[in-house]
Specification:
72% of the residues lie in helices and 0% in strands. It has helices at 2-7, 14-21, 25-32, 35-59, 64-75, 83-94, 100-126, 135-155, 162-177. The relative contact order is 0.11.
Length: 187
């Protein structure tokens, strides 16, 4: 992860990474089989750490909307070039070349975020804190929105600072999830 943050994926080679960690590229390939496997395992490691933070944030005893906002903050890149999101973008780009097992592992990561969001939407509706929606369908739309904004932040698109994105997403939540008759739009 440090090598990705320092040099980016375009400059990451197995030989260069091997030198950085004191191994030969052959030794790395023995453990990881390919650069794709190394990238996927690095993403899984990063996601496990982020998953711990997400579970803690979602378990807090605060209103659902606060937890929803925390979910979004954890989902979004912290800044342009965020190494976690650099990995995601690279693996999404390589997904067609990955084998079924590797694609399944990526899907498992995606589904963990999806399940947590669905549960949050269901809880919010059951408590009257959020408008009742088809939680699975709404979660799919929210994640697509977050993926689009996250890509903009990760690549450094002008006008896509994390604070701006948080405001846009907050507006979307206000328009689609606010309880009562004031909610506009469909989710």
């Amino acid at each position: 992860m440090a090598a990705i943050a320092d040099a980016g994926l375009e400059k990451l080679t197995m030989a260069g990474l091997g030198r950085e960690v004191g191994m030969s590229s052959g030794h790395l390939l023995y453990y990881f089989r390919s650069k794709d496997e190394l990238l996927l395992r690095t993403l899984e490691w990063s996601e496990e750490r982020l998953g711990v933070e997400r579970r803690a944030a979602l378990a807090r005893q605060v209103p659902v909307r606060e937890r929803l906002d925390a979910y979004v903050r954890l989902y979004l890149p912290r800044a342009a070039g965020d190494p976690h999101w650099t990995l995601w973008l690279e693996l999404w780009n390589r997904v067609r070349a990955l084998d079924d097992e590797a694609r399944g592992r990526l899907l498992d990561i995606e589904l963990s975020w999806h399940r947590d969001l669905v549960a949050l939407l269901v809880e919010g509706a059951s408590r009257g804190e959020l408008r009742a929606v088809d939680a699975d369908r709404c979660a799919t739309r929210i994640r697509a929105l977050l993926d689009g904004f996250s890509t903009h932040v990760a690549i450094g698109l002008p006008g896509s600072e994390p604070a701006d994105v948080l405001a846009h997403v907050g507006d979307f939540f206000d328009e689609t999830l606010a309880p009562g008759d004031g909610a506009r739009g469909g989710a």
